[in-house]
Structure formats: C-alpha cells, structure tokens
Design a protein that fits this description.
Blueprint (H helix, E strand, L loop, with lengths): L3 E4 L2 E4 L4 E7 L8 E7 L6 E6 L6 E3 L7 E6 L4 E6 L8 E8 L11 E2 L3 E6 L1
Parallel strand pairs: 2-11
Antiparallel strand pairs: 1-3, 3-8, 4-5, 4-9, 5-6, 7-8, 9-10, 9-11
C-alpha cells in the first residue's frame, strides 16, 4: 500500500525553526493536493497548510500564517513545511496527507503518513 513518510521533527526552543519533509513510498502524487495537519495530545487533528497540485496555490491556518511555508517538489514527490518562529502551542504530531479534492478537513484525505513529533520548549 502507498505510504507517506514524514521526517524532520524534533525539539526546538521558542522562536526556533524546523523543516519537515514528506515523501511517498510509491506511485505519484503530482495531481494531488498535499497538506499538513497536526494533533496535540487529547485534541483533534487540525489543519495546518495545504498546497495545490501545481504548487501555485497555498492555504494556511490562521494560527500559522506568516510563520509557516508549505512547498512541494513534484519531481521528488515530496512536500515540505518550513516552520519559523515556533511557539509552544505548535507542539504536536505533524502529519502529511494527500487528496484529489480541495478540502482542508481530515475526512477528505485518503493518504496519510504516520506523523513526526514537533516539540517546542517554552
């Protein structure tokens, strides 16, 4: 079965930066929108950022606008999330996902990675 694999998570202090990557194990996601979601302990999975199949259009949660940047390289079948000015409230497991829809809700994404932990120390 096709899988998405995240990498790049870790521990940083407030104000630090991380760059997450997500690669596909097989097939191509060139025609899929790609997105990042995150889930903190005891909370629901929330939308973070989305990028269209062409990379021309992006969408961000209000909480990360101006701090996070999503990008993709279709030749490498990889999507990235550059996270700057990190805050403790950004602490969560970050998940990469793919969909053929324009949705930003988890139910409409049919491909998911297993997640990578991001912890921001206060």
């Amino acid at each position: 079965q096709v899988q998405l694999v995240e990498s790049g998570g870790g521990w940083v202090q407030t104000g630090g930066s991380l760059r997450l990557s997500c690669a596909a194990s097989e097939g191509t996601f060139s025609m899929y929108a790609r997105a990042w979601f995150r889930q903190a302990p005891g909370k629901e999975r929330d939308f973070v950022a989305r990028i269209s199949w062409s990379g021309a259009n992006t969408d961000y949660a209000d909480s990360v606008k101006g701090r996070f940047t999503i990008s993709r390289d279709n030749a490498k079948n990889t999507v990235y999330l550059q996270m700057n000015s990190l805050k403790p409230e950004d602490t969560a497991v970050y998940y990469c996902a793919a969909t053929i829809t324009k949705s930003t809700i988890p139910k409409d994404y049919n491909y998911w990675g297993q997640g990578t932990q991001v912890t921001v120390s206060s």
